[in-house]
Amino acid sequence: MENVTTPTTTPEQLTADNGLTAAEVQQRIEAGQTNRAPTPRGRSTLDILRANIFTVFNAILATAVVIVLLVGQWQDAVFGIVLIVNTLIGTIAEIRAKRVLADVAILDAPSARVTRGGDTYDIAAKDIVLGDLVHLSLGDQIPVDGIVRQVGGISIDESILTGESDPQKKAVGDSVMSGTSVIAGSALIQATAVGPDSYANTLGAQVKSYRKVHSELADGIDYILTRLSWVIVPLALLVMWAQLRTHGGIDGALESGRWKVAVVLGVAAVVGMIPQGLVLLTSMNFAVAGAKLARRGAIIQELPAVEVLARVDTLCLDKTGTLTTGNMAVRRIDAATPLSSEEEAALAALCCDRANATAAAIDDYLAVGRGGEMRTPEAEVSPFNSSRKYGTARIGSTLYALGAPDVLLRDDEVEAAREIAAEGLRVVAFAAGTSEHDLTSRALVVIGEELRSDASETFDYLHEQGIRLLVISGDHAATAGAVAGQVGIAGGNPRVGDARELPSEPAALVDRLEGVDVLGRVTPEQKRDIVLALKSREHVVGMTGDGVNDALALKEADLGIAMDNGARATKAVARLVLLSGKFSVLPHVLAEGRRVMANMERVSVLFLTKTMYAILLAVATSGLAFMYPFLPRHLTIIGSLSIGIPAFALAIAPNTRRYREGFLKRVLRVAVPAGIVIALAVLLVQGLAISGIFRFTIEQSQAATTLTALIIALTLLANFSQPLMRDGKPTWRAGLLASMIGIVLAIVAIPPLRRFAALELPTPAGWALILGVGVLGAAIVWRLSHRTRVRNGEDAHTIE
Fold first, then answer.
1. What is the DSSP string of 702-728?
2. Residue whose C-alpha is closest to residue 522's, from 723, 297, 319
3. Which residue, 129, 262, 264, 583, could crosslink 458 as a Cys pair with Cβ 3.0–4.6 Å?
4. Name one GO molecular function term (predicted).
5. Is the distance from CB of 609 to CB of 716 less than 8 angstroms?
């Protein structure tokens, strides 16, 4: 039983050493051997703002807005709003991440007590120098690495750094680490590592660098935008040159003023090629998911992290503070007959001081059983003493003892206690008699770490979803294995290994990990190496933890999950923080990630189809010397009604389709052929419109191409808005589609709206052309997209 013991040295003895002289202290300060840890600067707010404003696409869009405002009409420049919103979202997200990382701190000790030149006084912890004598007492966080010089029965909780749940008793000559806490006794240590060289600050420095979360959605979109950046400017210049040719050549266009129209049409080609709303929609979708999860008790610290759990296939779990609450709890009291009220009173008297975790656990257990405070007869209590390993309480003529089984029990009874302890539990013996030499076993108090109430059910769910669970703990392998079994890891019968036997080579390490479910004695560096090794085999790795010993692994994991009661440094580097340690929120995080991935795949098809046909039209009209078929406002109408507005609604809709790899390939499998169909349909209508058959005006030709593109694009929207009917009734998706069609009809029918949209109605023959080509293109796109959507696993059962 861990305890506060009677000091073996007096305060006077602890200050017997004079410590460093003033000259020695000054020498170390000048040499930089102080406990001041440098803070990495990182990017300033101005740097972040500059990086988000001065991007290739912002430059292209901003230039396009300025050109349109100078030579065209303001109605054609409304696309510039997206530029501003995108910049704001990216800037705010990075500034928020910068502030979180600035909070990374393992050492919280504000002051320390040192002996220098024979005097003992308090100084700021940052002013400790190498070689200082530092006094430690109950409740202190150790501010430096050091060697114990004098000891007063000190016990240290190292779980925050090592994961070891049992307190560590220290003797003269033993090492202590910064960041750990004194839970019993006192000591005098000599500082051997300070500032950036201390263990805690070394760990802290490794987790302070900013690293964006890997998002398949964001990466896929960035891939497309990067490739587009290579062709947009050349294509825009090509379109402008081609449009000048169609307006009488460069000299003729300059003389007639038609060069302005050519420039605006070139801008239209640029606007059509950039899926500017897709980035905005992705950020918005992540933000909506983050807000929903916050209401459930999960804080997303980097928005794309909400996607990652949908992709995680391996979840690494720390034990102390993660599978367990970090508190001790009485599991049961093994007694031949129930304890009498006097026996319970004696047990309460021995533990009411709550001097340590064992005493507090027993006191809590008794408090629940007695429904509050218990009035007990007068008891003469002798507290636990480390030399005899038990404490006593006398009530009347009976002496009760609580302590180590090997001291209080017979050999056969000790064996039973050892068997229980082998399960990773702590066993305390409760005995009674007339004197210390006449004690008889009365009960075994079995104590273990308190399991998180929702852990077992949540892990069962994650296992059913195909996620592998791997416990990596700094604690004893047997203890970690026992706890893992109790929460249902590997069906309650996990394979247990010792991390001290692990190979260091990544490939061999991954192979070894395949044969275990639980690893004990894992160091912080090994946790990080395990995560990196798993990622090297293309696993998407999540990591949960609460201690500083988990921080390195949390940072390297694809998704770091921290407990709210964990260390500040751990929460700062995690992508997801579970408030009150509620594992039951993880299924909701998984569901949100799946919804984001599945819905963004749907709407990405719409955006990239537009990009595809815009590129094809730019190339084709330049090669054929055709006038570009759309004004910027026409592309804004097509994009808003067939993509933008409905995409915002579809992106946040329920969707339970499981994650599948290959997001970008599946999107392009639909977007490329659909874009080709729309481009061919538009070119066909434009070619016939300006031929001798129909003799359309320029304005009628642009209206015909716009309406043809709308018919096909709205058909694509209809397919990716499924289901439109459920149980014989229209769904809200049908209403959304009907609204978009209604707006198109209103623009065509209402003169002011038609003039704003620059749509001149064609002749009846023109309507026949629009409907004929539009319906044919719509039929091809419907067949193509429907077949692909079903192959991707989307059906009425996954979409509500």
1. HHHHHHHHHHHHHHHHHHTT--SEETT
2. 319
3. 583
4. ATP binding
5. yes
Select from 175, 153, 149 the least CA-distant residue to 162. Answer: 175
What residue numbers bound the domain in which 513 lies? 290-324+452-589
- Please answer whether residues 51 and 93 qualify as being in contact, where contact means their C-beta atoms are separated by less than 8 angstroms: no
Same domain, 356 and 505: no
- Which has the closest alpha carbon to 482: 434, 570, 427, 421? 421
460 shares its domain with 565: yes
Instruction: List, in sequence order, every residue forming a beta bridge with 333; answer none if it has no partner.
Output: 445
Q: How much of the chain exceeds pLDDT 90, in percent?
A: 22
Does one domain contain both 606 and 468?
no
| Structural domains of the chain, count | 5
Residues 343 and 426 placed together within one structural domain of the fold: yes
Choosing from 132, 140, 145, 318, which is the catalytic residue?
318
The answer to whether 318 is a known catalytic residue is yes
What are the residues whose beta carbons fall under 8 Å from the beta carbon of 670, sequence distance 6 or more?
605, 609, 784, 785, 788, 789
Is the alpha carbon torsion for 725, 728, 731, 734 positive or negative?
Answer: positive
The predicted structure's pLDDT at residue 258: 61
CB 364 within 8 A of CB 462: no
What own/partner pairs with CB < 8 Å and gap ≥ 24 does 413-419 have? 413/441, 416/444, 417/444
pLDDT bracket for residue 687 (50, 70, 90) = confident
pTM above 0.85, yes or no: no
Angle in degrees, CA 281, 284, 288, rounded to 5: 135
What's the whole-number mean pLDDT along residues 297-314?
Answer: 81
pLDDT at 548 over 90: no
pLDDT higher at 175 or 249: 175
Phi, psi of 420 (to 5 degrees): -70, -40
Q: Where do we find the tokens 């909506």?
A: 288
pLDDT above 50: residue 14: no
Q: Which residues pair with 432 in a beta bridge?
A: 400, 440
Is 601 in the same domain as 748? yes
User: How far apart (Å, rounded) are the C-alpha atoms in residues 749 and 45?
Assistant: 50
Query: Which pLDDT score is estimated for 347?
Result: 92
Residue 3's pLDDT is what? 37
Phi-psi region of 727 (alpha: psi -120 to 50; beta: other; left: phi over 0): left
CB under 8 Å to 409, separation ≥6 — which residues? 417, 429, 431, 441
Regarding whether 113 and 93 lie in a shared domain, the answer is: no
pLDDT exceeds cutoff 50 at 16: no
The two structure tokens encoding residue 767 = 């309507």
User: Is the C-alpha dihedral spanning 629, 632, 633, 634 positive or negative?
Assistant: positive
Domain identity same for 421 and 348:
yes
583, 300 Cβ separation under 8 angstroms:
no
According to DSSP, residue 613 is labeled: H
Q: Are 40 and 209 in contact (CB under 8 A)?
A: yes
